């Protein structure tokens, strides 16, 4: 690898096709996050309704971890294959088929009659999301020759993921509030079922537009048969192993800590005396501030990505403050000062999502075109979704033995411990992050 050559002339204007591809990619990122972030909202009522489990018991904690981890692990395994296919068959084909897969499976999960059936459908949803993500990143990265414009395009299209989180939070509030007035599903009005089926609606426009868009011109010009072995060549193996580990740490913060917040909020002492509807509305209200942090983190990263040349420095701008944000969220506000929860969850989400955006910009840089999606997929799916998301199992089991008088406090201590370990480990590993680029 060699450092990318600086531009000495003004970049050409963005074409209508480039605009359209960026808009479609942004919509895809939004719907990806919509599918992912509905799970922390519905996992508690789903386990109560579908599993008949008791909150705080070891079996409940086990299933709460499994319902988040197993789909992510499936996404990691099959998403890696999807990244390879995106390099072999093209970005557009991978995007169209992945969208179709996760749209149908997300809606089907709403009709599940057992936890096992739900897990199967949810795994298929996550596989589609995983393939969508890496293919879309590669597609956007290959649109622009100008490095500054490319960094901005990647940053702002990923920022749309925050909109998906806001959509999920708003949709959950609506289905919780109006579920009794909606048509019954399998003879009941369970909000989590309506939430799952709602994933079908926003993806329909993309199914109409995407098949007609041109594939990446860069991919067509450099099309060769990709090879997993190339990721471990002398030139790339340090990058491959290090990014796998570091992306895993970032996903551990998101899945092992942030995605536990809805369950912590639902178990606060103030929730014991309110109705189920009010409790879930409160959960969605706190989640709304988390998603505001998500949007702000994405947008902030997009604004500064093109201004900070050193990649290590850019990443550390989000890593170091994250440590303080997690302490505030899990060890102070969740246990002693719930009035600070909105501020704390906003800050923790801001700095975590800023790191996720960093990887979305960084990974396309460090792999050549012929294996770009394969390399992205290895870091994201093996490091992030297969290894990093195992933190949700660690958190769930740690909560069984953590100190605290209630299940919510135990979960807060466990989430905070996982978050701090992952964040500090990522900060240490960043000292070896390569600065070179193929773009």
Q: Topology of this structure?
A:
Layout: H1 16-49, H2 58-89, H3 91-109, H4 115-141, H5 147-178, H6 191-197, H7 200-209, H8 217-221, H9 237-256, H10 261-266, H11 276-305, H12 311-333, H13 341-365, H14 372-387, H15 391-401, H16 407-429
Overview in brief:
The protein has 439 residues and is an all-alpha fold.
Structural class of the secondary structure composition? mainly alpha
The helicity comes to over 70%
CATH architecture: Up-down Bundle
Overall mean confidence score, pLDDT: 88
Oligomeric grouping of the chains = single chain
| Low-confidence runs | 2-10
Give the N-terminus to C-terminus distance in angstroms.
Answer: 10 Å
Rounded radius of gyration (Å): 21 Å
Strand % is under 5%
- H-E order: HHHHHHHHHHHHHHHH
What's the number of domains? 1
Quote the CATH topology: Growth Hormone, Chain: A
Q: Total strand count, please?
A: 0
Q: Largest sheet at a glance?
A: none
Q: Give the overall form.
A: globular
Question: Considering the protein shown, what is the CATH homologous superfamily?
Answer: MFS general substrate transporter like domains
Helical element count? Answer: 16
- Using the coordinates above, name the CATH class: Mainly Alpha
Tell me what the structure shows.
This protein is mainly α and 439 residues long. It contains 16 helices and no strands. Helix 5 crosses helix 13 (341-365) and helix 9 (237-256) packs antiparallel against helix 16. It is globular.
Keywords:
439 residues; 73% helix; 16 helices; Growth Hormone, Chain: A; disordered N terminus; mainly alpha; globular
